[in-house]
């Protein structure tokens, strides 16, 4: 659990806008997993299981709080700075703004696909949908973000 | 990988990989888990208490102390009941009752031709439709009539005869009563008839069809009280009747302003049916559009009406008309005809309690 905590927080930061809410989300997921952690470890894929809890929990949070305005912390986008320059940081802020506008499920696919680098089959297991659905979500998300689609899929399994 | 995609991956990494104090987060998990567990336990307990309280609030008023309330028109005190007045005034019911041991679906209070009646229809199990045809329904009539003005019931008539009757005596409010149990010949369901004289000169009879135990019927009979009266008031009241005729009956449904009035005269009967909701659309022709509806003629009171074909029923109507608003139907039987119906309908007035 201790080993998986940081990875889950990183994923959560991509699923929600506010870094503190990301920590709350992970904490909530871990609290739910805590009583049956030994059972989860005995399962074949505890990482997949925890990510599924995290994504589903975020979806239910999103549904519950859809009408509420949430604070947005954009500082994280400019944090990793040593080799970074001002123009690059600004570009990332702009790109992150496009990620933020995605529906939760498309956003989860983008995070799992391009940050966690999971294949579509694994993403499908986490989201509870088919590979084709994952691919559709990804294509729509990239289109919505106006990212060049040419040659994007060449390396996907 | 394209430049755009590289930028996306870089953005995601920049966003995700800020400093993380995982130890602090994990330290909070145990505490949060205990807090959540306690919250859920308290929530479940609170939900349980709420559920029990809610159930109690729903059920207790109906089943405690002695059954289900019966809807009735507003009651007024009636200090001393004169036996001769029972059934004499079609606008007044001279008795009240307590609760019934089973759920009641429909209640009518009526006075007709000298007999005051409370009729109940319900079910001994529940009022949902699944019990409509499983033999658990009941029908109850409690009648009160003056021995001086009403005819003595014919003990040989089919309607008052039970098959395989068994009689026994009982006491109701200190008065001797006869309890006859058997099978109702019409419905073949079990039946109980309890007859007694609550006061001198007044006959009371409680007739129960359906699976209501005799003990419960006797308990309900004990709740009869003559120190209250109820007014039978409907949405409309007739101000004009044919010569020699008078209102002899009034029936109100569930204590509302809807029901039926009966006018009897030397030539026959005129009936007035008052409904809360229109049974038919004004203009009445099936399939007619609103634009095609004829302009309705008006009665003496200014209310629009339409004349219906009296042969459209099996009760030998001689004339039949309806008023769309307030929804009223008036029809005649016997020697009365359209002129009499128009007279009664044109004399209707709105009434309130």
| Order of strands, widest sheet of chain B | 6-7-8-9-5-4-3-12-13-14-17-16-15
The general outline of chain A is: globular
Low-confidence stretches of chain B: 60-64, 154-159, 281-291
Global structural class of chain B:
alpha+beta
Radius of gyration of chain A: 16 Å
Measured by residues with Cβ under 8 Å of the partner chain's Cβ, the largest interface is: A-B, 40 and 29 residues
Give me the strand/helix succession of chain B.
Answer: HHEEEEEEEEEHEEEEEEEEHE
- What's the Cα radius of gyration of chain B? 32 Å
Describe this structure in words.
The complex is a heterodimer of chains A (157) and B (353). Chain A has two domains: 1-73; 85-157, Orthogonal Bundle (Arc Repressor Mutant, subunit A). Chain A is 64% helix and 0% strand. Chain A has helices at residues 4-15, 19-33, 37-42, 46-64, 86-100, 104-114, 120-127, 131-144. In chain A, α1 (4-15) packs across α2 (19-33), α2 (19-33) packs across α4 (46-64) and α7 crosses α8. Chain B has three domains: 32-64; 75-231, 3-Layer(aba) Sandwich (Protein Transport Mog1p, Chain A); 236-350, Protein Transport Mog1p, Chain A, CATH 3.40.1000. In chain B, strands 6-7-8-9-5-4-3-12-13-14-17-16-15 form a 13-stranded antiparallel β-sheet, covered by helices on one side. Chain B is extended. Mean pLDDT of chain B is 82; it is low at 60-64, 154-159 and 281-291. At the A-B interface, α1, α2, α5 and α6 of A face α1 and α2 of B.
Summed up, what is this model?
The complex is a heterodimer of chains A (157) and B (353). Chain A is mainly alpha-helical and 157 residues long.
List keywords for this structure.
heterodimer, A: about 160 residues, mainly alpha, Arc Repressor Mutant, subunit A, 2 domains, 8 helices, about 0% strand, globular, B: about 350 residues, alpha+beta, Protein Transport Mog1p, Chain A, 3 domains, 13-stranded antiparallel sheet, three-stranded antiparallel sheet, 4 helices, 18 strands, about 20% helix
């Amino acid at each position: 659990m201790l080993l998986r905590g940081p990875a889950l927080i990183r994923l959560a930061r991509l699923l929600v806008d506010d870094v503190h809410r990301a920590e709350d989300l992970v904490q909530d997921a871990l609290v739910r997993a805590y009583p049956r952690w030994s059972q989860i470890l005995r399962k074949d894929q505890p990482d997949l299981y925890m990510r599924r809890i995290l994504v589903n929990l975020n979806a239910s949070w999103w549904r519950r709080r859809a009408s509420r305005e949430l604070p947005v912390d954009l500082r994280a986008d400019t944090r990793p700075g040593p080799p970074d320059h001002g123009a690059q940081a600004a570009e990332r802020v702009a790109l992150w703004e496009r990620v933020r506008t995605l529906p939760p499920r498309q956003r989860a696919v983008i995070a799992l696909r391009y940050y966690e680098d999971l294949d579509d089959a694994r993403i499908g297991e986490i989201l509870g949908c088919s590979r084709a659905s994952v691919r559709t979500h990804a294509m729509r998300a990239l289109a919505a973000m106006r990212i060049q689609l040419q040659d994007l899929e060449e390396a996907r399994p | 990988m394209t430049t755009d995609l590289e930028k996306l991956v870089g953005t995601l990494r920049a966003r995700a990989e800020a400093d993380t104090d995982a130890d602090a987060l994990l330290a909070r998990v145990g505490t949060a888990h205990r807090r959540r567990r306690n919250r859920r336990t308290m929530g479940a307990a609170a939900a349980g208490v709420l559920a029990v309280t809610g159930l109690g609030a729903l059920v207790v008023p109906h089943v405690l102390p002695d059954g289900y309330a019966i809807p009735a028109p507003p009651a007024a005190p009636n200090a001393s009941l004169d036996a001769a007045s029972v059934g004499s005034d079609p606008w007044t019911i001279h008795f009240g009752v307590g609760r019934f041991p089973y759920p009641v679906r429909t209640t009518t209070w009526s006075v007709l031709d000298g007999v005051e009646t409370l009729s109940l229809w319900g079910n001994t199990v529940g009022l949902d439709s699944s019990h409509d045809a499983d033999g658990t329904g009941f029908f109850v009539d409690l009648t009160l009539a003056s021995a001086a003005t009403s005819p003595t019931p014919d003990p040989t008539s089919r309607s008052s005869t039970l098959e395989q009757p068994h009689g026994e005596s009982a006491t109701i409010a200190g008065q001797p009563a006869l309890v006859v149990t058997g099978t109702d010949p019409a419905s073949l369901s079990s039946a109980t008839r309890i007859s007694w004289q609550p006061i001198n000169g007044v006959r009371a009879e409680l007739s129960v069809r359906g699976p209501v135990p005799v003990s419960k019927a006797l308990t309900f009979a004990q709740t009869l009280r003559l120190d209250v009266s109820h007014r039978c008031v409907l949405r409309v009241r007739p101000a004009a009747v044919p010569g020699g005729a008078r209102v002899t009956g009034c029936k109100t449904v569930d204590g509302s302003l809807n029901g039926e009035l009966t006018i009897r005269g030397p030539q026959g009967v005129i009936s007035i049916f008052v409904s809360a909701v229109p049974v038919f659309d004004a203009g009445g022709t099936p399939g007619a559009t609103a634009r095609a509806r004829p302009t309705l003629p008006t009665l003496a009171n200014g209310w629009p009406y339409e004349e219906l074909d009296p042969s459209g029923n099996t009760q030998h109507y001689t004339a039949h008309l309806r008023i769309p608003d307030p929804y009223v139907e008036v029809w005649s039987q016997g020697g009365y005809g359209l002129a009499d119906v128009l007279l009664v309908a044109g004399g209707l007035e709105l009434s309130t309690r």
